[in-house]
Structure formats: structure tokens, C-alpha cells
Amino acid sequence: MKTVCTTCPYCGVGCGVIASSDGTIKGDPDHPANFGRLCSKGSALGETIGLEGRLLAPKVLGHDASWDNALDLVATKFSKAIRDYGPDSVAFYGSGQLLTEDYYVANKLMKGYFGSANIDTNSRLCMASSVAGHKRAFGTDTVPGTYEDLEQADLIVLVGSNLAWCHPVLFQRIAAAKAARPNMRVINIDPRITATSDLADLHLQVRADSDVALFNGLLAHLADAGKCDDDYVTRHVNGYTQALDAARQSNASDTGLSDAELQQFYAMWAATEKVVTVYSQGVNQSTSGTDKVNAIINCHLATGRIGKPGMGPFSATGQPNAMGGREVGGLANMLAAHLDIENPDHRDALQAAWNSPTMCTTAGLKAVDLFQACANGQIKALWVMSTNPAVSLPDADGVAEAIRNVPFTVVSDIMARTDTGDLADVLLPAAGWGEKNGTVTNSERRVSRQRAFLPAPGQARPDWQIISGVAQRMGFDGFDYESPEEIFKEYAALTALSQKFAKDLDLTDLADADYDGLGPVQWPVGGTDRFFANGGFFHADGKAKMLPLAAPALETGKFRLNTGRIRDQWHTMTRTGKSAKLGAHLAEPYVEMHPADAATLGVSAAELVRLDQKGIFRVLISENIAAGTLFAPLHWTRQTSSAGTVNSAVNVGTDPFSGQPALKSADVSAEKFGAGWYGFAVSAVPMTPSRPYHAIAKTQTGWQAECAGVKTPTDWELEARNITGMQSGPAATLYDISTGQTRVAIIDDNKIAALFFASPDPVVVARQHAANLIGQEVSSLSALAGRAAADQPDPGPTVCACFQVGANTLRDAIIAGANSVDTLGAKTCAGTNCGSCKPELAAMISQFKLPVAAE
Ligand SMILES: Nc1nc2c(c(=O)[nH]1)N[C@H]1C(S)=C(S)[C@@H](COP(=O)(O)OP(=O)(O)OC[C@H]3O[C@@H](n4cnc5c(=O)[nH]c(N)nc54)[C@H](O)[C@@H]3O)O[C@H]1N2
Ligand SMILES: Nc1nc2c(c(=O)[nH]1)N[C@H]1C(S)=C(S)[C@@H](COP(=O)(O)OP(=O)(O)OC[C@H]3O[C@@H](n4cnc5c(=O)[nH]c(N)nc54)[C@H](O)[C@@H]3O)O[C@H]1N2
Ligand code: SF4
Ligand SMILES: [Mo]
């Protein structure tokens, strides 16, 4: 058995993991990102490393091919496109989930050997506004602070960040710090009330995209209250007066908050020296995203609250290597080592270091434009790596069409079937997490090793090796790498250029370090932990810039659709979807809707809603969302649902500075989906229900499917067989003529192989219990009751993923007196492993706690 210290492949917290080849996963107690903690996704990594669904050999036009044939073909097609149509006729689309070494090699090939910058990444959908905001304010893309600041702060302001679900270990660090120092305060600014709001002393339910107005209002208040640091501003900041003048033009009532709420927020911020403002996609994914970033940074610059312990603006990165990608110049408008593409000296220096034949001279196409160029015929050869754009880009169906329109498309992925892979001419099998070596950089600039503990399956190869193989076949020197270590050392040495041009990034000390034994290390290596406490910005005069910002006009449309993440799934679910534990939390695509809107549309709880004629989602009626707005998760795809790909209904503009799409604000129509029947099925085998509405998920015993259709089937047994994939074996059907409810059990070898429940209304059945019956002996037909027997209480929908504790179990324990998260944990185990469900436990306690009798 092999055991290694490695890094979690999901979010940008970058937790250290101790992983073994038998699938055991533990948090690394010595890693400074998590000190042993893991969230539900990290804890379930062992369930996701199986080979089910993996791409194990190269495929050309759907047929297995040898590596030689596949790589020759890719090299020939790219060479020919460049020869016939020029370097800008080819494009790469990469990912913040590539390792630094993969990312570096792809950029070197594209920018230094093809001579085009048409290489962009999903970081355009994620961090681009933060990058643009940092560059405007600081002169370079620097995150000034560290995770410790979040523990040392007296006030944490979360803006457009559902930290409890998206950066759970950081959230837990804050929660622990707050428990230890009860005077610490947390403010959450989000148009939705979320699990994160549970920790907040103040939740500001702002109008969407009113963040610039809010922070402009704060800046004016800080000036009026005499809280600006004149000395810091004079010595280190340009643009104060203009920024303040512009801020005074803004109208804080745009936020929709009451005066009392605004004054409370301003007063708390003004009164607290140690304040950290953490922001994420509610800020970045907006047509005013870059301005939002600068509106936040303006307030920190004006007060000098930056770069000192417990204070500063903090952009939480999404993906495990969002930060590393930025360091190696992963975006179409950047060069490696934080060098600028517009600067000829930077370009020349990089070309000299690479000793490369050519160099791109201008920025390339940004993600949305890149796929537009695919649609209009400019792109003749496209290579997509470690991302699923046919799901994750806005106008996902248009993007799929655009990819189809490219004469030659290569997709490198670990999975045989993804919505993007299905469109490829060539599929290349990549080695996945646990099978390859390299480095990633987390949100606090800490470089950590990923280490292999499993053999690469089938013919899978690490991405750097695949890219290098094509480069060599195209006749380029400079790609004869034998290992990721060689690549890392070349890149680390190259960051000397960043120093030469007075930039921030310096990894040169790592160029001679022991790569195998490299522990987590923060940059600047051996320097200070934080930037800018005493100025030292990276604009030519060494000063920072405050920006004069106008708040955008806020539109009122039909419904405003906000999108984002849920606790237990990662993006397009290609990995987390393999875990039954993770699937049990929220198992189908849903749309959150205010009760008033539900009443207007005539939809009741658990019915279905159609968005923009394209998507169909289960309605979740909730007071946590404002009337006129909707929220839907981004995770479901055409593989896991019939119509749950939310980006099919998301058609949005981009930020003018960063090119980041406004994924939080699609204008959509919504109507009730008139289902004639609803169904729920569990089966021992994977299902492809192909019904107008369906969504599948993994269970402990096989698979489950939610479905619905318009026309009620006449033969329910046939319907059950078609949906569950169980064509043979005896079936028992129960039909209740008074309610129209139907139950079908299909038996194989005297064991229950599939169960199907249908009803004219949303199906009420103990789903977890039904799933657990699969594979059981058929002692009686009581299985068809669809509810648990008295001696086997139904735990209800899963809340705690680690211990599979359901909502009913928790409700009963709360009613029996468990009235704190800790006692509930002691009684049921819920929340005692990763702790990701603690906000939900707290919410349930306030819902079900019996009122204490007056004494
Ligand atoms: N479980 C899980 N965790 C993840 C991921 C995942 O897929 N699953 N993905 C990772 C990645 S790549 C990323 S980028 C991060 C994202 O992490 P987050 O940004 O925290 O997550 P989101 O759910 O995208 O959006 C955050 C919040 O922005 C709010 N919001 C929307 N519009 C506005 C607005 O105008 N103003 C304000 N103030 N708020 C607004 C939304 O209501 C939402 O609650 O998560 C990372 N972590
Ligand atoms: N509506 C809406 N859309 C969004 C967002 C939103 O908030 N709302 N958020 C956006 C953001 S912030 C992000 S980051 C994107 C994420 O969106 P994507 O990047 O498209 O989503 P993933 O599912 O993470 O895709 C990663 C792919 O890489 C594959 N893979 C895993 N490991 C490896 C490997 O080692 N090598 C290779 N070659 N492949 C691998 C996986 O199987 C998967 O197919 O979504 C964006 N889209
Ligand atoms: S918080 Fe969770 S998903 Fe993020 S790195 Fe840590 S364990 Fe992984
Ligand atoms: Mo992201």
C-alpha cells in the first residue's frame, strides 16, 4: 500500500490530504491550509477514484487508437491549420484544474511556439474580474493577505461568497475563530440567504449587482467619519479624490437595504480596524465585476487596512489551481511569471528564456469570444483540456453547436463521456488526481504538491506529457521533458524575469529545491507573508490606484436567474457524481423560488418549473430568496439530466474589463411545467430514462432516477422496465385506482432489482429506504409500500454526508432535546467528521427546537 501527502483536487482552499492506495483519505494535520480538516467533498475522495466511466485509451472518431496514431493526427491537424490559416486559427481552452506544470507547457507551446495567445481557460468564468481588479489597483495580480488574516480579523465581510458550501474549511476556520473570540463579527452580503448566513451577525440581502453602490456608499461614509488614513493615502495611493467624488455620486438606496441596515454596516466597518473583505463569484461573475472588486479594494486602500495581520481585501479562488494558472500566464491576456503581453520587453525576455521560434504579440481570444470564433469559422483546430465548456459556459447549447462547427476538436479528459467529450474528434485519456505528480497554488499563494498514489489506469497519461508529445511531433525543441520536476524547475527559474521587471512573483528559490519532498510553501518564498502594508505597489510609481467607479444602472426584467453551487457536488459532477454519499444531499436540478412567485405561477412544492422554454427544474419554494429572482445550481449536465443544464437558459453579457460572463444574472422566463405524472425509480443498474424530465444519481445500491412526463403511460410495467433498464425478471404492480398511484417491483433471482413509483402528483416515498431495498431478498411485497416499516425508521433525506444522517433522524433528536449543534452531533454523529453540514444542523435546530417554557 502506498501513502502520500498530497493536495485536494477541488476548491482553492487547497487542503492537504493524506491518501492511500486502498482509498483511505485523511486531512493532513501538518498542512497550513487545513490543519487536518476536510469538507464533505474532500472526505469522499476515496469514493471517486474508481475506474467506472474512465477514458482508458485514446479515441479517434469514437474508435480506440494507439497513442502514436492519435498524437500524430493532432500534430498534423494543428500544423496544417497554422500553415494554411495562420496561428490564430487554432485555440486551446484549459482549466484552473490543470496542474501548474501542465498549464505552463500548454502556454509555452501556444504563446512561444505557435505564436498565438488564443489560449484561455475556465478561469475566465471564475477569477478574471479579480485579476483585472488587482491589476488596476495594485499594478499586478496579487492577493495581499493570508488565511490567518481570516482568524485574526475582528470583522469579516463576505461579499457574493457562499463560503460555507464552497470553501468549507476556510468557513470552519472562521467559525472556530469566532467561537474562540466571541467579539469577532461576520457580515454576509448576498441577495440570497445561504448556509453562510448562519454564521453572520448581519445578513445584507442586497439587490443583485448593487455591490458597487454599497461600497461607494461605504467609502463616502469612511471619509465623512474621518476614518480614512491620510498618511497611507498620501504616501502610497493615487486617485483618492476622484474615487471619493465618484463614490458620492452613487445612490446607496440602489441596494434595496433600509437606512438602518446601511448605517449598521457602515458603522461596523468604520469602527473595526481589523477587517477582511472576502469576495467570490457574486462579485466576479457580473458585468460590473471588475468595478465591484475595485469598489471593495478602494475602501481598504483609503483606510490603509491592507497587508497587515487581520486586514485586507481577500479574493477566494475557486479551483485548486486558479492561482497557479494565473502565475504561469494561463489567460489569453497574460504571460508566464506575471509578465504583461502588451509589453515588448516582457515578450522579448520570455522568448529569450524559452529560446523559442516566435512569440505572440497581442492578447488572444477570451473564453466567450473564443467560442464565438469557433461558431463563426475562424477556429480550425481546438483543444479542450480539463474543463467541460458545453456545460459551464453561458449559452451552453450555442457553445456545443460552436464546438461541432470546428473542423477538428481534441478533448483531454479523465472520463469517457462528458457533454464536451461527446463532441470531440479525438479524445485523449488523461491521468487524474492520485495518478499524477505536480503542483498547485491555493488562494493564499501557497504552492503544494500533488503526489501520485495510484498507477495511471489503462493508457492514461499526465496532461504535460500529452501536450509535450504533440509539440515534439510538430518539430519543436524545448519539450523533451522527462518529468514534471523538470518542468517545474524551468518555470521556477524563469520567475527571475518577474523580479527583473519589478513584479511580485518569485519562485526562484524553488528551482533547486527537493521537488519530491517539497512541503507547502507560500510566496514570496522566504519573504514577508503579506503585501502592501507599507506600500510597495507594482504600478510604475510604486503607488496603488483607487478607481472612480459609477454604480451600474440596475435593470428589472422578467425573472432574474442567479446560479452557483451546492455543498456536495463539484461543477459538472464527473467525479463527485460517483459518490453515493455526496449524491444524497441534493439529488436533482432545482430552482429556488420565492413563495409569492410560486403562487403567481401556480406551482406547488416539488412540482416542476420550466426556464426559458429550455430547462426543467424541481421547484424549491423558499423565503431565502427575493421575489422576482431565482437560483439554480450549475452542476447538472446532459449526462445526468434531461433538461437540467442551467447554462442552456443562461445568455448573458460580459464584464468590459475582464471579459468574465455575468453568470449570476440571466434574464429568463419561468412557467409551470405541466406534468401529467411524476415518477421515482431505483435500480441496481445505471438508468437512461429519457423522459421529458429526468435526473439520475448514484445510490449506495445502484442508481436512482427522478422523472416526469406529460402523457400518462397506459402500461406502467413497461414504463417501469424502460426507465429502470430491467427488461427481464418477474414484476409485481400495484395500482391504486382512487389516487392514481402506481408501484412496480422488478425481481431478479429472488432479489429486488428495481422499484418504480409513479403518481399524478410529485411522488412521496422514502427515497433512501427504497434505494436500500435494492438487492434485498423478496420476503414480501411490503417493499411496494415505499415507506419504512415500524422497526426500521426512515432516516429521511441526507443532511450529514459523512455519516449519512437524515433529516428525520435529526428532527427527532432535536425534538427529544438536542438543541445545539454539539449535542446533536453527540447524539447522531451528524457534523462530527467534516462539519460541512453544521450550518444546516443549526438551521434545523431553530426550525424544530421546542419553545422553552417560561420559568
Ligand atoms: N461545493 C462546491 N464548492 C466549490 C465549487 C463547487 O463546484 N462545489 N467550485 C469552486 C469554484 S471553481 C468556485 S469559483 C467557488 C465559488 O464560490 P462562491 O462564489 O462562494 O459560490 P457561488 O455559489 O458561485 O456564488 C456565491 C454567491 O454569490 C451570490 N450572488 C449572486 N449575485 C450576487 C450579487 O450581485 N452580489 C452579491 N454580493 N452576491 C451575489 C449568490 O447568491 C451565491 O450565494 O467555489 C469553489 N468551491
Ligand atoms: N451558470 C453558471 N455557470 C458557471 C458558473 C456559475 O457559477 N454559474 N461557474 C463557472 C466557474 S467559476 C467555473 S470554475 C466553471 C467550471 O466548469 P468546468 O471546468 O467546465 O467544470 P468541471 O466539471 O470542473 O470540468 C472539469 C473537467 O475536467 C475533467 N478532469 C478532471 N481531472 C482531470 C485531469 O487531471 N486532466 C484532464 N485533462 N481532465 C480532467 C473532468 O472529468 C471534467 O470533465 O464553471 C463556470 N460556469
Ligand atoms: S475545503 Fe473541501 S473541497 Fe476545498 S480543498 Fe478543502 S477538502 Fe477540498
Ligand atoms: Mo470557478
UniProtKB/TrEMBL annotation:
UniProt keywords, alphabetically: 4Fe-4S, Iron, Iron-sulfur, Metal-binding, Molybdenum, Nitrate assimilation, Oxidoreductase
Residue ranges of domain 4Fe-4S Mo/W bis-MGD-type in the record: 1-53
Superkingdom of the source species: Bacteria
Keyword Transmembrane helix listed: no
Required co-factors: Mo-bis(molybdopterin guanine dinucleotide); [4Fe-4S] cluster
InterPro entries: Asp_de-COase-like_dom_sf, BFD-like_2Fe2S-bd_dom, BFD-like_2Fe2S-bd_dom_sf, CT_Nitrate-R-NapA-like, MoPterin_dinucl-bd_dom, Mopterin_OxRdtase, Mopterin_OxRdtase_4Fe-4S_dom, MopterinOxRdtase_cofactor_BS
Pfam families cross-referenced by the UniProt entry: Fer2_BFD, Molybdop_Fe4S4, Molybdopterin, Molydop_binding
Keyword Lipid biosynthesis attached: no
Entry's family note: Belongs to the prokaryotic molybdopterin-containing oxidoreductase family. NasA/NapA/NarB subfamily.
Protein name: Molybdopterin-dependent oxidoreductase
